[in-house]
């Protein structure tokens, strides 16, 4: 009959083996996918605007007792002579619409039109180039972030359904064959605009 010390050693060895297996599985199933969509996976490149157009017009809710007509801007860009990818203002826009670069649902319709015009002037002009980052681990849907800082337009969380985010996107939504480009926005009150080359 084995003594108690041998039983303790065998149990400890079993616990170590199970712990190591759990750590490896956690790394493969949880950590690895998270790292693929983290900032560590992003590579620098240059984005070039191919074309842009205004879309939208569907009814939307802009807050309590507030109904409006949404504004949607589509900006398509290329990176390193790739196929067109959808430029997206923020991860929040992707949650609302996988077809819009910029999406607003505000009470003030004139302000929405002005914000869309400003964004289109800054990023939607054919041939514009700016530095950006893309997710190298996602060949189907390209996630691109600017390598410079922008400032947001919205004044208060109650005013808009879509608010800028200050952390990098963890998920990417999009249609097959068309990539998504994400612009990271910092919280601020005025637009700094893109750096031009």
From TrEMBL:
Transmembrane segments: 12-35
Keyword Acyltransferase tagged: no
UniProt keywords, alphabetically: Glycoprotein, Ion channel, Ion transport, Membrane, Transmembrane, Transmembrane helix, Transport
Chief location: membrane
Record's GO cellular component terms: membrane
UniProt subcellular location: Membrane
Membrane disposition: Multi-pass membrane protein
Domain of life: Eukaryota
Key word DNA repair present: no
Gene Ontology MF, one: calcium-activated potassium channel activity
Protein name per its UniProtKB record: Uncharacterized protein
């Amino acid at each position: 009959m084995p003594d108690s010390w041998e039983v303790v050693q065998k149990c400890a060895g079993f616990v170590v083996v199970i712990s190591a297996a759990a750590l490896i599985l956690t790394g493969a199933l949880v950590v690895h996918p998270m790292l693929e969509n983290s900032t560590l996976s992003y590579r620098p490149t240059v984005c070039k605007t191919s074309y842009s157009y205004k879309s939208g017009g569907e009814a939307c809710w802009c807050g309590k007792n507030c109904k409006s007509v949404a504004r949607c801007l589509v900006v398509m860009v290329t990176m390193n002579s790739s196929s067109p990818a959808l430029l997206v203002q923020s991860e929040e826009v992707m949650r609302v619409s996988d077809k819009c670069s910029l999406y607003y649902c505000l009470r003030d319709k004139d302000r929405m039109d002005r914000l869309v015009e400003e964004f289109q002037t800054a990023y939607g002009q054919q041939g514009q180039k700016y530095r950006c980052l893309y997710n190298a681990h996602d060949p189907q849907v390209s996630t691109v972030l600017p390598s410079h800082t922008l400032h947001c337009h919205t004044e208060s969380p109650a005013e808009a359904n879509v608010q800028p985010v200050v952390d990098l996107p963890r998920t990417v939504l999009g249609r097959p064959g068309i990539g998504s480009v994400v612009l990271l926005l910092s919280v601020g009150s005025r637009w700094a605009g893109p750096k031009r080359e």
